[in-house]
Amino acid sequence: MNFDEKFSVAPMMDWTDKHCRYFHRLISRHSTLYTEMISADAIIYGPRENLLNFNKEELPCILQLGGNDPYKLANASKYGQDYGYSKINLNIGCPSNRVQNGAFGACLMKSPKLVADCIKAIKDKCHIPVTIKCRIGVDDMDEIKGLDEFVDEVSQTGVNEFIIHARKAILNGLSPKQNREVPPLNYDRVGSLKKRRSDLKIILNGGISSIDEGKELMKTYSLDGFMLGREAYKNPYVLSSVDKDIFEKKANLKTRYQIVMQMAKYIDSFMKQDEPRVHSVTRHMLGLYNGLPGAREWRRVLSEKAKNAKDGDILRVATDSIENVIQRKNVA
């Protein structure tokens, strides 16, 4: 599958599951979507169908894997390929305690030869592309020499796409949340990597708060794309401008109301299949009306009533209420 990754919604643990991705795809047809990070062990030994099953409407969708064992990563990637994912992305940037204990994620920036071995094993088993998501460094690693050596070593395997979170990961002393905020952003470092390795596709991640900011950073540093993470999750309707403003596609712009109605049908279809609680879908939609009259009530209804809801009517009732509030405000 050929697709342009000028814009992606970043993979986020506990957030970018299949329900979230289906919702985001309704807002933007051309954005690249990612799974949350899934460990190779979980895919091999755990509930594989539950972890990997997804809606084909989500494509292009990239499976992000965590692990450090070439054999296991290769097998997990093959499962991902068989399920129909567009690419495999290896997480070399997550700073959580879980990945530190398992010696993968950001820890692997210190072991580029091992990462290269993992990539080779995946490529021997799969024909879909493999990409890397990493930081500009980890702990006391030199941001210049360390990142260059890591990218140069790994790119020898044929990997030509690196998503770079423009912060170091500080594994000793900072929590995962602090690692998203405390280490200073260094977009210049990502730009200098692109300048030195213009043959590689370099995509920027970290601290970007709007579509316009991402576009400007792409232009400034001649980058190939950017990711929006928490902003896209908390204010999902920002994705409505992506198809037109970034991909220059004729946008079939959906209103919030139209999106909610489609999500209500989506919930109805899943409840017929004995899918889990309605709340597992609606929790991703809390920010859809952010900044509009009635948004607080929208969030309250979904937060308090969705847990006991039986079908998509919870969305139909909630959206009728907020749309009436918006209409009254506009008339006034």
Describe the structure.
The chain is α/β, with parallel strands linked by helices. It has two domains: 7-243, Alpha-Beta Barrel (TIM Barrel); 256-331, Four Helix Bundle (Hemerythrin (Met), subunit A), CATH 1.20.120.1460. Helix content is 45%, strand content 14%. The chain has 16 helices and nine strands. Strands 1, 2, 3, 4, 5, 6, 7, 8 and 9 form a nine-stranded parallel beta sheet that branches. Helix 6 runs parallel beside helix 7, helix 13 (256-271) packs antiparallel against helix 16 (313-331) and helix 15 (295-305) runs antiparallel to helix 16 (313-331). The radius of gyration is 20 Å and the shape is globular.
Secondary-structure map:
Layout: E1 7-9, H1 18-27, E2 33-34, E3 38-39, H2 40-45, H3 48-52, E4 61-66, H4 70-83, E5 87-92, H5 97-101, H6 112-125, E6 130-138, H7 145-155, E7 161-169, H8 176-179, H9 187-196, E8 201-205, H10 211-221, E9 225-228, H11 230-234, H12 242-245, H13 256-271, H14 279-282, H15 295-305, H16 313-331
Parallel strand pairs: 1-9, 2-4, 3-4, 4-5, 5-6, 6-7, 7-8, 8-9
